[in-house]
Amino acid sequence: MEIEDKADNDNGGEEDSFRNSNDGEGDINHIIDISGSLMGLKRKNIQDFYELYCEHAREVGFGVRKTTSRSNDAGVIIEKYFVCSCEGTKRPSTSSHSVEKKEKKGNITRTGCKASLRVKMNSDGDYEVVSHNTLHNHTFWKDSSRAHHSERLITADDVIYSGAIPINSVQDVEGEHFACLSRLKTSALEGGDAQALVDTLCQQSTEDRDFFFRVKFDDAGKLSNVFWRDSMMKEDYRIYGDAVVFDTSYRAKYNLICAQFIGVNNHWKNVMFGCAFILDEKTESFEWVLDVFKKSMEDQSPVTLFTDHEIAIENAVEKVFPGKKHRLCRWNLYQDAVARFGKLKGDKCFSDTFNKCLTGCTTETEFESDWNTLISKTGLEDHSWFKRLYNSREKWCTGDFFSTGVSSSQRTERANIAIRFNAKQTTGLNEFYASFKETIKRWRSNEVKDEFKCSKATPTSVLQLRGILKHASEVYTLTIFRDFEEEFLNSISTSCKMLHSDNDITFYSVTHDDGVTSHDVTFSVVDTKISCSCKRFEECGLLCRHCLRVFHMHSVSRIPDCYVKSRWTKYAKRILWEKKSDREIDTSDDCVPWRHDVMRRYYNLILLAEENKETRRIIEDGYKRDSASVDSVMGVSSSTVVLDSERSIKQRTK
């Protein structure tokens, strides 16, 4: 019997898998908890178990290596070991060039981890998991799962479409892999795909006089980032830009980040404020996009900006929107936590307690108590991700910021703000933009239909439309009225107790029908000003059941004007709709086609000159000369710079 030991050298003898990105998404995920123990599972071949263990590793957050095999006399493998990529320790080198080798190989990643999977052939000729050690001695890296050797994937679509290299010649080396990705990105952005996109954006500017886009080049003159928004996005932002979600979860071709600025309109539907392609996930790139977005909206900042829990994004937001309300989307935090801790996702106690920490705590004391319970029961006291989450709690656990409700896990499912473009990752940038336009067109078509329904229909209710409920049906859109109606019905089942009175201010305690949950309400009889400790109005701009209960006690038959936010009303865009025909693009303006033609010619000239230092200097000197001449004639410079270089744009003023 032959024993074949493929135990690792410094490389780990690691066999990387270059599989189609759809692999690993078969029926197995619907049958077992892929993040738990794999003991007892049976498969027909060793490769299936390797892919299965890679799926398990991806869920938990570690890399995989193939190691020892045992074969019979016929050469058939009868036993196979798979281990964590941190298994073993680095062997000391006896080479005289050990220092040089160490510098090339980088950091030591071995920790002596004992986690492993042992597969053995049974009497039926099938392979079966006979041992699965799930205990690791290191931190998991689920966020960077694609950085593990076993997860460094180059999809066939990416490679074949680019024409850069044949799929069967991809080398299993870290540096080669990332260099390949870089070449794929930069070659695409330098080539016809990027040119076609820029040409399309230029054409859009001739059709929409308030269309805005910026293109950024790096020091080598290569296109890196693109941002655009049309005139309607700007108008929508003026009305609904109080709460903005900066979504960076979507990936376009060449693994470019497709970042969208999204809001919610008065029908609780998606509304787009702008979109960008970003080459990398560096703070500088996010800072550029956020700054350009702000400039495109005439420096009007959102009241609240929601982002993912990423350090690079948080740093960029702090610099571009200092002092503004930056918040983390609670729903995304919950999904991230569940994805990170596979073994806990089936734990109802963990799920309920964590969800309460995210959305259900009304006081700091209550939050601290629930958080400590959560951490102690799950043994996560020293977990870095939870520590970081706790340290940033001001960005997600408080309710005194305006969010239109998108931060609430209960309502995000209804909003479904995630974009679903009719495009694939292999779709070219220009084709992607066309698909993007179709998506926005569909959204706006639905918005027109919603506006029409609100102008023609009167909502029905299980109660008679009288008093404050009737007033709500008259001012709010149909969707928002249903939300108000639900709170109104819930207010009926609450009990209200007056605590004390101070001149014209009365203090109440409103208790839910469970007899446990209660909130304090303050009401002024003189001006009908009201506030509640649940902070619902401060968060989403709609009155809570507790305030409605107190209003009912005082026979308030109309919602006070200060509590009717125009963004939720039927008339939020009335002025815009009335002026829409007057704002249509005037194609007779001779400046528009001239501007497009000159922009295109200059852009082509820049592409022609970018590879040569002398020609680049000619372009730069020419820009300075022409700028000085224009300033001399005009006295001021009012031109809008569309193409950014790596150096910051110096805007000239009077």
Commentary on this structure:
It comes from Castilleja foliolosa. One of its GO terms (molecular function) is zinc ion binding. Keywords: Metal-binding, Zinc, Zinc-finger. InterPro entries: FAR1_DNA_bnd_dom, MULE_transposase_dom, Znf_PMZ, Znf_SWIM. The protein is an alpha+beta fold. Among the domains are: 152 residues, no CATH class; 31 residues, no CATH class; 113 residues, no CATH class; 54 residues. Helices cover 41% and strands 17% of the residues. An eight-stranded mixed β-sheet has the order 13-12-9-10-11-8-7-18, sandwiched between helices. Strands 1-3-4-5-6-2 form a six-stranded antiparallel β-sheet, with helices on one face. The longest helix is centred in the C-terminal third of the chain and has 28 residues.
Helix content: 40-55%
Number of helices: 22
Q: Could you give the order of strands across the largest sheet?
A: 13-12-9-10-11-8-7-18
Q: Beta-sheet strand percentage? A: 15-25%
Quaternary class: single chain
The helix-and-strand class reads: alpha+beta
Q: Output mean pLDDT.
A: 75
What general outline do the C-alpha atoms trace? Answer: flat
| Low-confidence runs of at least 5 consecutive residues | 1-31, 94-107, 143-149, 151-188, 408-420, 581-588, 637-654
The count of DSSP E runs of length 2 or more, i.e. the number of strands, is 18
CA radius of gyration is 30 Å
Largest sheet: 8 strands, mixed
| Distance between the first and last residues' Cα | 87 Å
